[in-house]
Specification:
The structure holds four protein chains of four kinds.
Chain A (H helix, E strand, L loop, with lengths): L12 E5 L11 E7 L2 E8 L7 H5 L8 H5 L6 H16 L5 H29 L4 H21 L8 E2 L2 E2 L7 H12 L2 H10 L2 H7 L7 H6 L5 H5 L6 H4 L25 H25 L18 E9 L2 E9 L5 E7 L1 H5 L3 H4 L5 H11 L3 H5 L1
Antiparallel strand pairs in A: 1-2, 2-3, 4-5, 6-7, 7-8
Helix pairs in contact in A: 3-4, 4-5, 4-12, 4-15, 5-6, 6-12, 12-15
Chain B lengths: L2 H27 L24 E3 L9 H5 L5 E7 L5 E9 L8 H5 L5 E3 L14 E3 L5 H34 L59
Antiparallel strand pairs in B: 1-4, 2-3, 3-5
Chain D lengths: L1 H11 L8 H38 L15 H11 L10 H16 L19 H9 L1 H12 L3 H32 L4 H6 L16 H17 L11 H4 L10 H25 L15 H27 L7 H29 L5 H9 L1
The chains are: A alpha+beta, B alpha+beta, C alpha/beta, D mainly alpha.
Chain lengths: 376, 232, 156, 372
């Protein structure tokens, strides 16, 4: 029955989603041009949290820059600290003691679990189920307690140093971590029962914002977003750094179990499975950690040799890359930070065409973007 | 959409909802699960490495300004004056915990380990001025005046001794030619401030460091000139 | 594939457009390329079956004392090797063709280089300032950048 | 019902006989209305407290426990806060409609309290078109919400308003259809008659729920559709915090916002009361007969039973809210038109055929007649 009604002249609505909006994970502003509920065009507008971290990088010394890397991705600041240290050590060729590398891997994986918990919690809260967010925060508080024992701070740790870590593990730390892992391991299947395979949740995420493997690679998606599209690329496996080769864990890849490959559900499930993998790595790291010093000999006014280096580490949100140019003085000459969320936003406009407003929220949540990293 | 899929949809919706509700029910019924800390009554005791507000023990502090230089946000301001016995006397030592980001770099770099983190975390205040911790309780100018007076006395005493000695030598050895060893006065005049004080702070004579008075946001004039890199 | 072989391959194909290979002190090595040929070389690096640089890791603007530069870090997911491509630009009006058709991931990073350095990428999808407000004068990451006193009457 | 009360009052207090009868009935009506309204408001306040306590409990935290002994006076504190808060009306808002909207929504949801059969004799006014009246009144809420969405001159509110009226309108049909089996069995629209028809057979087996499999199924259909009608999760699309910031009442503050808030809890009670009245045997209690008790005690006892059943259903709504995520608008519509409407129609057909075949007797009645 062809509807012969004259097409009603509908007017497109221009909505500002952000910068102050409950589910944009920070000060992201999306200029939504919608036809009723369906999004015609969603253009992200970033820059509200620009603190010129790269300009500061050219003014402070290498050791002084450490607290600024905390503020790069404050949900995974241990990973950013460690990435910055690995870059400088690669540039200057500093030999880091074995125990320090193990401690770095332990804190990085703990921080990955904490970051994925926040991603899981805030994503389900965006989809309307508020309770899993509280459970995720409760688990994260226990990780924060562990971090508070090591370095004294609960969010911006500033714990890793160039050449090692600032302080050795406090006593009983490894037991407490083991207790946490035993407590945390059964929680993940419980989340799956509670929300991951819930019919409404699956219906909201399956077949939404599908990123084909080619698009994912071309648009620079990395980390869980790339693996969500079925590309098994994990820096800890494909370009091993630090002591990661010593641990065996498998790379979690999206399988399109509840919809097409590369949809929001796959990206979400990759993060859930990655939490389990991190627990595996942590158990092995705790078992194999050797004794020994935790800090290499690095002069205080550290002057690296002249040169350029690019290093990237596997952060919970993707690849954090540091392109460091040093001219032999105490300050870096140029420091470019390749933030995963920033590059992920490239695909945002293309992927949200034709979705509904509620799905734009789902896309933001599934890419797990974070604004301080986008705006630097 | 076949009837089977239709019915399966309904069944799956009911089943997954029921599974989810069983979990929330378990949490709902189980009183042991609540983990909230009733703040004013139950207090959170931080771990011993907790990086709370800073505390500088004035007696052991040698005012070497290492902490001033290492702080990325320049929230430590220090004024020291060289005393009569050539040791530095601390005129004023303020930390602006409103700007401090508790990164702990200063505590790490402090040679005499006088700067420490306390486990305090409760200092919400209405006026920004309260956020500046003053560790030298006496007024800076009084200290400077007192030290200046001491140095002047020491200089005067040294002067008097030298004059007396010179008179004896003149008496004992007659008109011996002067051997050009006319010693410079014991040390610089007290009023000249120690070079070591942070150059950026020279103009900040008054008590409260100017709020962002400098043009560059948070950028001190420039880190120590290349030559002076190592500790004085 | 070693950087040297890549350099020879590109030199064989594009002649003097491949200027030199910076090896020592650079990790990963850099392939210096003439500005106007960047897009073709990019497409060649991506489509050539032996190299298949399909993922652009990082695109950054650099303000060297005497000239500007745009550094591309490429990585091949299939083969696994990495290479850097660098383009030197004059100080006055730095501009070069955009590569966002070759690697769509470049779009935001090109806008950032334009925003913070003032390097113009011709033929880009939409070259606008990304981090700073649209009407901000000056490009902050340049070494000779002076902080403006006021912005719309607000003290900076 | 009012006249009988008025007459009994006049006989009790002879001095009143001089006053014309209609003023007394009017007076009695006002008193009853005041009683029901105070009950409704205190219930709504307590419901907010209970909801936050239940939410806290489920989420491994403690609900409000600072105001009052166990946090019991929290809703008073909230109420006073909302009263004292500045009542902002956006500049370009359509002032009159903006002010009118909350009243419409409030009236729409609290007017239905008139017909709720609280106890044996306890009903504000036993309209013989009980359910029909409730259906009519609750659809007034749609007008109020749409007004609120349009008049606050805010794109988010407009979207919220549109979604809400689409949702309530399209869920009226399944709610209506799902209640009809009870009407068919009782043969009358009045809620008192429906409840009376479920008496007997040891109290519990008389309930419509066990009358026949179709009514059993239609109770759940009704409950799901009613959840959608009161905008409760998983159907809280209109005020979806994470998408539309908070839907149609985004620009409201102060006492106007309180009206929306109370209306939501009022709706919850009305919907659960209807479910209890139509399917769970109203104030009939298993294995005990309310009439057996002396007059006043009987009423109070039946009131207690009715309230426990209704508040149980309200608690179930709260429990569902803190477990399930939210549906998208088109999924909501699909569920209404493709799942609930056909199922309720099929159900209605089933019940009517059942009544035709077994001329009005349910399974329990038949078993009783076999044994009896």
């Amino acid at each position: 029955m062809k509807s012969n009604a004259v097409a009603l002249p509908t007017q497109e609505m221009l909505i500002n989603m952000g910068p102050q909006h409950p589910s944009t994970h920070g000060v992201l502003r999306v200029i939504l041009r919608t036809d009723g509920e369906v999004v015609v065009n969603a253009k992200p507008d970033v820059g509200y949290l620009h603190r010129a971290l790269e300009k500061i990088g050219e003014r402070v010394t290498y050791a002084q820059y450490m607290p600024f890397t905390d503020r790069l991705d404050y949900l995974a600041s241990m990973n950013c600290n460690a990435a910055w240290c690995w870059t400088v050590e690669k540039l200057a060729g500093i030999e880091v003691p074995e125990r320090a590398e193990y401690i770095r891997v332990i804190v990085c994986e703990l921080n990955r679990i904490a970051s994925h918990l926040i991603a899981f919690g805030s994503f389900t809260a965006d989809m309307g189920a508020f309770t899993p967010f509280l459970y995720a925060i409760r688990e994260r508080e226990r990780i924060n307690d562990l971090f508070e024992d090591i370095c004294g701070n609960r969010l911006t740790y500033n714990y890793v140093r160039i050449g090692g870590v600032s302080a050795d593990l406090p006593d009983r730390f490894l037991e407490k971590t083991k207790e946490f892992l035993d407590y945390f391991e059964p929680k993940v299947p419980e989340y799956n029962k509670l929300i991951s395979y819930n019919k409404i949740f699956v219906h909201r995420l399956a077949n939404i914002a599908v990123a084909t493997p080619e698009d994912a690679v071309a648009y620079g998606l990395t980390g869980p977003n790339l693996r969500g599209s079925g590309v098994p690329f994990d820096l800890r496996k494909n370009e091993p750094y630090s002591v990661y080769p010593k641990f065996d864990f498998d790379v979690c890849v999206g399988t399109g179990e509840r919809g097409t490959l590369g949809d929001c559900f796959d990206r979400y499930m990759v993060r859930i499975n990655e939490m389990k993998e991190s627990v595996k790595i942590l158990r092995q790291a705790i078992a194999q950690i050797p004794e020994g010093p935790v800090m290499a000999k690095v002069p205080r006014m550290f002057k690296p040799p002249v040169g350029e280096v690019y290093f990237r580490a596997e952060n919970p949100r993707g690849e954090t890359g540091f392109y460091l140019i040093s001219d032999g003085t105490v300050n870096p000459y140029r420091l470019k930070i390749r933030a995963p969320s920033f590059v992920t936003m490239n695909i945002f406009e293309k992927i949200t065409k034709g979705l509904m407003i509620a799905d734009v929220v789902a896309v933001i949540g599934s890419f797990d973007i974070i604004l301080p990293e986008i705006d630097r | 959409m076949g009837l089977k899929a239709y019915l399966y949809d309904i069944w799956e919706a009911v089943a997954t909802t029921a599974k989810g509700m069983r979990i929330t029910a378990r949490y709902g019924v189980d009183p042991r699960e609540t983990i909230t800390l009733q703040y004013p009554e139950e207090r959170w005791e931080p771990s011993e490495r907790y990086r709370g507000f800073l505390y500088n023990d004035i007696k052991t502090c040698t005012s070497c300004t290492m902490c001033v230089r290492v702080c990325p946000v320049d929230c430590i301001s220090l004024e020291a004056v060289r005393g009569a016995d050539k040791k530095m006397v601390l005129a004023s030592y303020d930390i602006d915990i409103g700007r401090c980001m508790y990164c702990g770099l200063c505590v790490e770099v402090c040679p005499p380990k006088s700067l420490k983190h306390t486990s305090g975390y409760e200092k919400a205040s209405v006026d920004r001025g309260e956020l500046i911790l003053h560790f030298v309780h006496e007024d800076a100018n009084q200290i400077k005046a007192r030290v200046a007076k001491q140095v002047a006395e020491a200089a005067a005493k040294a002067e008097a001794e030298k004059a007396a000695k010179a008179v004896e030598e003149a008496k004992a050895s007659g008109p011996v030619p002067d051997d050009g060893r006319n010693e410079a006065p014991a040390d610089q005049p007290a009023s000249q401030q120690a070079a070591a004080a942070n150059p950026a702070k020279k103009d900040a004579a008054e008590k409260k460091p100017p709020e962002g008075a400098k043009g560059e946001p948070g950028k001190p004039e420039e880190p120590p000139k290349k030559g002076e890199g190592n500790t004085p | 594939m070693e950087p040297k072989e890549i350099f020879e391959k590109v030199q064989a194909r594009f002649g003097e457009a491949a200027v030199e290979l910076q090896e020592e002190g650079f990790r990963p090595a850099f392939l210096v390329v003439a500005p106007e040929k960047v897009r073709e070389i990019g497409r060649f690096l991506r489509d050539d079956p032996a190299m298949k640089f399909d993922s652009l890791m990082c695109l950054s603007g650099v303000d060297y004392p005497d000239r500007f530069a745009v550094a591309y870090h490429l990585h091949s997911l299939a083969i696994g090797h990495r290479i850097g491509v660098k383009v030197y630009l004059p100080k006055e009006a730095p501009s070069l063709p955009s590569v966002d058709e070759v690697w769509p991931a470049a779009n935001f990073q090109e806008r950032e280089a334009f925003d913070l350095f003032g390097i113009v990428f011709e033929g880009s999808w939409d070259l606008r300032r990304i981090l700073l407000p649209e009407d901000w004068e000056g490009h902050p990451l340049r070494k000779d950048y002076k902080y403006p006193e006021f912005y719309h009457g607000i003290k900076v | 019902m009012m006249e009988s009360l008025a007459i009994s009052l006049v006989n009790a207090v002879p001095v009143l006989s001089g006053v014309p009868l209609w003023t007394i009935t009017l007076l009695v009506m006002i008193v009853v209305a005041a009683v029901v309204l105070t009950f409704a408001l205190t219930y709504a306040g307590l419901a907010t407290y209970v909801e936050r306590k239940v939410a806290g409990d489920i989420q491994a935290r403690v609900g409000p426990n600072r105001v009052g002994p166990v946090g019991l006076l929290q809703f008073l504190a909230d109420g006073i806060k909302l009263l004292l808060k500045e009542d902002i009306i956006p500049t370009h808002a359509d002032r009159f409609l903006f002010a009118l909207a909350p009243y419409l929504v409030f009236v729409g949801s609290f007017a239905a309290f008139v017909v709720i059969p609280f106890g044996m004799g306890l009903i504000a006014s036993d309209l013989n078109i009980g359910i029909y009246y409730v259906m009519a009144v609750t659809s007034l809420v749609v007008v109020g919400v749409l007004l609120a969405g349009w008049s606050s001159n805010n794109k988010w509110a407009l979207l919220g308003g549109m979604r809400c009226c689409a949702q309530i309108v399209s869920y009226e049909i399944p709610v209506g259809m799902a209640l009809l089996p009870a009407v068919l069995i009782a043969g009358s629209l009045s809620l008192q008659d429906i409840v009376r028809s479920q008496g007997g057979l040891l109290g519990i087996f008389g309930w419509n729920l066990f009358h026949n499999p179709f009514t059993f199924f239609s109770f759940f259909l009704y409950y799901v559709a009613a959840l959608a009608e009161t905008n409760r999760t998983p159907f809280d699309i209109p005020e979806a915090e994470s998408e539309l910031v908070s839907g149609y009442h985004v620009e409201y503050s102060g006492i106007r916002f309180a009206f929306f808030f109370l209306a939501e809890y009022g709706d919850m009670f009305v919907v659960s009361a209807l479910a209890t009245a139509c399917f769970l045997g109203g104030w009939h209690v298993p294995f005990l007969n309310a009439k057996a008790l002396p007059a006043v005690w009987g009423n109070l006892f039946s009131l207690g039973v009715f309230l426990t059943k209704t508040l149980g259903l309200v608690l179930l709504m709260m429990w569902v809210r803190w477990t399930l995520p939210r549906l998208r608008v088109d999924q909501l519509m699909r569920m209404a038109w493709k799942y609930l409407v056909p199922l309720t129609f099929f159900n209605l057909l089933g019940v009517s055929l059942w009544l035709l075949l077994f001329h009005g007797k349910g399974i329990p009645q038949m078993i009783a007649s076999l044994i009896g």
